[in-house]
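Now produce a polypeptide, keeping tokens residue-aligned:
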Amino acid sequence: MQFTSLLLNSWSIDYLNFNFRNLQKQYIQGVKRQTQIRMDIHWYLENFFRRIKIGNLYKYSVFQQNKLLILSKDYKEMRTSFIERVLIYRQEILTKDNLNLTENEKC
């Protein structure tokens, strides 16, 4: 709960993406993968690019090779907000999972 509270109150919330898997074709077909919270790659590149070299030279080189391509795109125009994604998750997944759980418990 503290992690969620930190995310929702942070100035960086505009740079987060809530990537839930439950509605994806592979998940429905039985390939279960965990939900992810991702950072906007453009923001990450501008703010943390040099720091990644310390921990992961491979990722640093990938960023270095693709830096101009990443900076040339406006990813913010192509996505919904973090809050909108959380609300979709709550409405489409958590509510339905709880309803299914309740129905199964009755049996």
